[in-house]
Write a structure and sequence with these properties.
The chain has 7 helices and 7 strands; from the N terminus they run ββαβββαααββααα. The strands form 2 sheets. Strands 2-1-5-4-3 form a 5-stranded antiparallel β-sheet, sandwiched between helices. A two-stranded antiparallel ribbon has the order 6-7. The longest helix has 19 residues. A hairpin with a 2-residue loop joins strand 6 and strand 7. It has a single domain, classed as Beta-Lactamase.
């Protein structure tokens, strides 16, 4: 089960927080700070998995850094670490396709669309969809027509994504 999903910038400012388990808001704020501190202090050569007891007993923090953003999933021991890393990759690629070179400002100003894309991937702490084309299609169908017309074609997206990361 996925307990929470976070996106932080490199200064520790949360750009997306989604908890799939009920936790008091004061505890949520402490968890966000603790998770960012644990992830941001690790050297780039370190493994992207951390053992943790922060949420619901024993769990794992799985993260990946893209440019100035940390994408963090907190999961139970039953989830595959490599599967979650792939899920993070799919989520980032979906964001990149939907927002034409996604950046931190997209996360700030288009947070509803970001949450909608995340809801296509994860719901209630369970993975719903991993097919990138299905996720992008569902997300684009939810966006207003003006935003959809600005979406980048599929062939250009992968090449721009590969050069950015």
């Amino acid at each position: 089960m996925i307990y929470a999903v976070f996106i932080f910038n490199n200064k520790g400012k949360p750009r997306l927080t989604k908890f799939y388990t009920p936790i008091d808001e004061s505890i949520q704020q402490k968890l966000i700070g603790d998770i960012y501190a644990a992830v941001s202090t690790r050297p780039p050569t370190a493994c992207n998995f951390l053992e943790s007891n922060l949420i619901a007993g024993k769990n794992r923090i799985i993260y990946r850094q893209y440019a100035t953003l940390y994408f963090v999933f907190v999961v139970d021991e039953g989830e595959s670490e490599l599967g979650i890393l792939d899920l993070i990759q799919v989520f980032v690629e979906a964001l990149d396709r939907c927002f034409n070179n996604v950046c931190e400002l997209d996360l700030v100003f288009k947070f509803q669309e970001i949450h909608a894309i995340l809801a296509e991937v994860v719901s209630g702490g369970l993975v719903l969809e991993t097919n990138l084309n299905e996720i992008v299609l569902a997300a684009q169908n939810q966006m207003p027509k003006t935003k959809r017309s600005n979406a980048m074609p599929f062939s250009n997206t992968l090449s721009s994504f590969a050069t950015r990361f």
